[in-house]
Amino acid sequence: MSACVCPGSFDPLTLGHLDVLLRAAGMFDVVHAGVAVNPGKQGLFTGAERADLVRRALADCGDPRAGRVVVEEFTGGLLVDHCRRLGVRVVLKGLRSGTDYAYELPMALMNRDLGDVETVFVVGDPRYGHVSSSLVKEVARHGADVSGLVPPAVRAALAARLGENAP
Length: 167
Ligand SMILES: O=C(O)c1ccc2[nH]nc(Br)c2c1
Ligand SMILES: O=C(O)c1ccc2[nH]nc(Br)c2c1
Hints:
Blueprint: E1 3-8, H1 15-25, E2 30-37, H2 47-60, E3 69-75, H3 79-86, E4 90-95, H4 98-115, E5 118-123, H5 133-141, H6 152-165
Helix pairs in contact: 2-6
One 3-bromanyl-1~{H}-indazole-5-carboxylic acid (9FE) is lined by residues 6, 8-10, 17, 20-21, 93-94, 133.
């Protein structure tokens, strides 16, 4: 039974993230989407909200691979410790650009040193090459329609959350 961990903040999940999770589920029997919860860093959504949005987006997407993805929060701590708890030795990340690779490289080498965890990379759909959680939040705060960037459940959650926070 092959398995990998796909870690992220998912604050919130984008269509780029969903693309990577589904591609991972096409290669591994089980994909552990790891929602990283950093107590010191208050995201737009709580860890539980982020994990719930990932689960709902997977349930709604209509892709048969989605059933292979399990969503877990992991609070603080090292990714290698989360992998050890799960008994998984492969981390999978998406790459949109060389910049992503440059950022991921030291962490991949560190995770190999710290926990004998290997990192594999999948090239995401170039349609989402410009999409990140932070940029989505930025444009959504300014009233942009983000329906082409995030799943419907996330779009609704952003409208609700940012509507609450609207100046
Ligand atoms: O959500 C994030 O912070 C984040 C970052 C980097 C990422 N690479 N692949 C995925 Br899926 C991913 C998610
Ligand atoms: O949302 C982000 O911050 C983020 C960062 C880096 C990423 N690489 N691949 C993906 Br999908 C991705 C998403």
